[in-house]
Please model this.
Amino acid sequence: MESRQDQQPVADPIDNRQSTIVNPQSAIQNPPLFLFAGGGTGGHIYPGLAVAGELRRLLGEVKIVFACSDRAIDRRILDPLDHAVVPQPVLPLPRRPLQVVPFLRAWFRSRRQAADMIADLRPAAVLGLGGFAAGPVVCRAFRRDVPTALLNPDAVPGAANRYLARFADAIFTQFENSTPLFKPHLRDKVRCVGCPVRPELLGGDRDQALRRFDLRADRKTLLVLGGSLGAESINKAIDLLRGDLEKLTDTWQVLHVTGPQKSATPGADQRTGHFSDPGSSGLLIRTLEYCNDMGLAYAAADLALARAGAGTVAELSATATPAIFMPYPYHKDQHQRLNAEGPAAAGAAILCEDLKDPAANAHRLRQTLLPVLRDSSRLASMTHAARAASKPRAAQEVALWLAAYAGMQRARQE
Model:
């Protein structure tokens, strides 16, 4: 019996990439349900939330269930929202022999859970968000003939997506150079649409943002962030650069999202995650452990210093925020570096290697960050390049694919 992974890719339900579903609500009488699987970092969950929002715009009433990991970051992001959330016991791939048995136990428990979810919920389609938490649901959806797509926002497909690609009917990527990294017989499934970005991140009001973070309107803002989990090496480098930044206090201020328990700023109030230097003449720094208003953070920002996770790269591009990217240095495949190469080549960003040493990183940032802070024309050029490189239709493209399968499911039921 021929398996789905041996078949040719299924025909795409949307033939015209620029088209929209004609009155999609009229094609579906009952609210369709979609199962989104993945998590472990904000970079996996936030693109899924963007697609969920676009599905609601297209279809009106719709149900989304997130099958996520049991990491605290997943619940921190999803709990305030109205989507159903199902944590899975699945664990990351083992790196040491002692981790193999716990991994296998969690994997089989998660597979049973996924089978029950799919049988009970009967989703119109499944969207894998990437990462280890996508595996059980995507595999089970394939075996139950549920249409399945993957989001692959990183330039280099991770281990989970490389394995799950055989089970997917479509693979949505952010970067063109991702396609050759999939096996040849899977490349016809790949569609380069960009990375879905939540609409609430776009078009934020700068005056509102300055009030929200208690920043000054007569200074430009450097946004420092290391992704949803923070970046300790960036935090420490900024602390060492404080004397250099003090010299720019008349023109710049800092909004620093440190990550949980990773504030490097002496004197920061860890109860509130908010810090301001005493005195009106010093460097103005606002520090948050976590930011639930990233749309306003981007609206306030004139330049960002950040990791180069796929979601961060997409959000900075979509908001036309130029960046100094300091990719996470410990990934074997260096996928964050590859994520940053595209914006850097377009002139929207500068790549700064994380040398894994605070003093060395501070020295490197003096060569990359400080010149941009001092040169307004260079900053303006980078902003223009960031705006030109953005791909704002990614969430719509993915949602159209899923919505078309919801219509097909309803037609079969009738």
Observations:
- The chain has a mean pLDDT of 86.
- The chain has two domains: 4-197+392-413, 203-389.
